[in-house]
Amino acid sequence: MRSLLFVFLSIVSAALHAQIPVDLKGFDKKSGVQATVSESRLNIEWPAGNAETAKVSIDLNKTNALIGSLGIGTKEKQYTIARDLDPAIILTVGKRDLVSQNGWNIFFDKTAYQKYQSYAVKLEKSDVKVATNGTRTEITVNGAKAGPFTGAVQLTLYNGSPLLNVAAVMTTNVDSLAVIYDAGLTSRNEPWERLFWADTEDFMRNVAVTKMDTVEMMAVKYRTIIGQGKEGNLAVFPAPHQYFYPLDNCYNLEHIWYGENYRNLLPGFGIGIRHDLLGDRRWVPWFNAPPGTQQRYNFFCLLSREKDGKVLENVKAFTHSDKYEPIPGYYTMSSHFHQEHVDDVLTRKPLPEMPGFVKAFRNTGVNIVHLAEFHGPGSPRGPEAKRWPELKMMFEECKRLSGGNFLLLPGEEPNNFFGGHWMNIFPKPVYWVMSREKDQPFVEDHPEYGRIYRIGNKEEMQKLLEMENGLAWTAHARTKGSTGFPDKHKDEAFYKSDQFLGAAWKAMPADLSQPKLGKRVLDLMDDMANWGYKKNVLAEADLFRIEPNYELYGHLNVNYLQLDQLPKFEEGWQPVLDAMRKGKFFVTTGEVLIPSFKVNNMVAGETAKPDAKGNVEITLDARWTFPLNRAEVISGDGKEVFHDVINLSDTHAFGQKNFKFTQNMKGRKWLRLELWDVAANGAFTQIIWLE
Q1: Between 90 and which of 182, 192, 504, 651 could a Cys-Cys bridge form, CB atoms 3.0 to 4.6 Å apart?
Q2: Which residues are the signal sequence here (predicted)?
């Protein structure tokens, strides 16, 4: 009996320690990457730039840590950064409300306050596949499970950079799920000697790694934690924008962690990134996880031989140190901020000479900020005794806080008359109130405030926009308070007019299966063009309070407006509205830039004529930090929308290129272009019309 038991246990032990099979059929030996299998290890070496080679060793034994070692070095010597690491990912799975509002486009959801369950992704290694995709090498280890999700753990290596992406690529058949995730790397040993990070004031901090039974969570700048081993550093950080599902406030919610047995789900010592389950304590929609989609719960790592946290400078390069890069001929603009600065001033709150939100924008390289005041406080509908002083204070404060390379513009989200929620902007200070009694005139001259307007209906609102050369557009189209809009009023006179710009774009909702952000409004952009209206789409942030130590960059996007110079507040800002109206701008998260886009030498907002066969020549100047993923030429014929995807997996990190190609646009009436990188950062142009 004992001998039979011994044989049985030996068979079980052998099965547990068995080496999983490796499939190299999709690997290109001419890719510049080396892949070998020896001594139960799959070893991948890839060119990391600067005459360096990076190396990852995958342990093929089922019971061992997945990553046997990570290293970087030269032909002469390889330096080991860490050994015996496991990708560590926790999925917290809740219920999505698909009934009460607008399906998967919902923002006003309460996932964090309903029942949810957290699961660590368990990897029971079954097999591993290595595939070449342009300049990328994808290592896929099957056998991952987490609650209702199944899939694989995937490592993606990028030629020309010591960068790698780690992802749990997971699918579920269960409907109506919303997910949030924490991630990082854990070890059964202690692979790090010290940890480094930048605090919210941008000072480098560090701590020695000692035996600990607790976990520390910290608010940091640049969303990065760095582990230092004996021979180098490894930085762990998220995709800068994709990782942040939409919230009302961009608080810094302690997005990194380190320590032992994180959340009692990840045994061993680890470092990583995290979400606060309750977000900003308002609406907390998490990430969509529609059934049958491949969700990528991912993060990035960057290897370096340098110590003392110097690798952070290399991480910062991917986001230009969380700043928007200056481009000759352009100024950056961001819109839709409920800062309620006027209320702070009028209620005598103690304020510094330069408020925190202005410092935050200036530090981030935003030249023009368009406010959305009086969203809660204030008297937009009167009484006039309150409304006029409130507007005067807004104009005075905007003027006071503008100067140098910064322009603060007054604005509101009126949400009246037209239906849905909408934003407005005038090219100069305009006094108006959103109500009018029958015996009151529509417009009159006031002894203190000059010309004043009283608005009682949508016709008068449109007339005001025409008389003062203002613009309006749909805020957060097809979601929030604009659910069903602008679709419901697309045939109205005010919507068809030149005063109605179009809509605003934000990465909402969040879906980690998509290679882009903000598909909701990108689809609307195409629909508006097929409706036959020459509308534009502006970037919006739709954020409330902002301070310099908040996680502003992760939640931000901007418009690069073509302007000869920044207008002075006291002279009016008509050139800003002209650029918006003419489509002389592109939208970006910041990492991908499109300084030039032409179709047959015509630019956005203009009309190009295809040749007799329907062909057009598209030229594009592009700059990027993360390696690019894809370009999309989107076009329409008035009924259908066409997506021509151009695979850009042959690009490296930190590139700049002039693209020129011919595209057949026979029967098409318009086209535009999107550009996305491997972290789902992106940029898109406005529309060029076709004869």
Answers
A1: 182
A2: 1-18
User: Is pLDDT above 70 for 16?
Assistant: no
Helices (H) and strands (E) in the chain, counts: 9, 42
Run of H or E including 217: strand 215-218
- 608 within 8 A of 688, measured Cβ to Cβ: yes
pLDDT band at residue 213 using 50, 70 and 90 as cut-offs:
confident
Which amino acid is residue 518, in one-letter code? G
3-state secondary structure of 185: strand
Give the Å distances, CA to CA, from 454 to 273, 381, 420, 421, 495. Answer: 51, 9, 20, 20, 21
CA distance 360 to 323: 10
Query: Mean pLDDT for the chain?
Result: 96
Going by their DSSP bridges, the two strands 592-599 and 615-624 should be labelled as antiparallel
554: which DSSP letter? G
Token digits for 393?
Answer: 């204070």
Sole residue written with tokens 């109206």: 581
628-664 residue pLDDT tens: 999 999 999 999 999 999 999 999 999 999 999 999 9
Q: Residue 514 is which amino acid?
A: Q
Residue 636 CB coordination number (10 Å) = 22
470-486: average pLDDT: 98
Distance, in Å, from the CA atom of 646 to the CA atom of 626, rounded to the nearest integer, reads 17
Residues present in the chain in total:
691
**What is the C-alpha separation between 186 and 153, in angstroms, rounded?**
14
Please give the Cα distance from 92 to 112 (Å, whole number). Answer: 10
Contacts of 50 (CB under 8 A, 6+ apart): none
181, 297 in Cβ contact below 8 A?
yes
DSSP at 566: P
Structure tokens at 154: 């995937």
Q: What is the pLDDT of residues 22-80, one digit of tens each?
A: 999 999 999 999 999 999 999 999 999 999 999 999 999 999 999 999 999 998 899 99
Nearest to 340 by CA among 477, 176, 101, 543: 543
Q: Which residue in the block uniquely carries the two structure tokens 């952070």?
A: 312
Greatest alpha-carbon span in the chain: 106
Which strand (E) or helix (H) includes residue 496?
Answer: helix 493-496
User: DSSP of 1-31, one letter per residue?
Assistant: -HHHHHHHHHHHHHHHTPBPPEEEEE--TTS
CA dist., res. 411 & res. 388, Å (int): 14
pLDDT in tens, 51-66: 999 999 999 999 999 9
What gap in Å lies between CA 524 and CA 507, rounded to an integer?
13
Q: Which of 243, 259, 275 is nearest to 195 (CA)?
A: 259
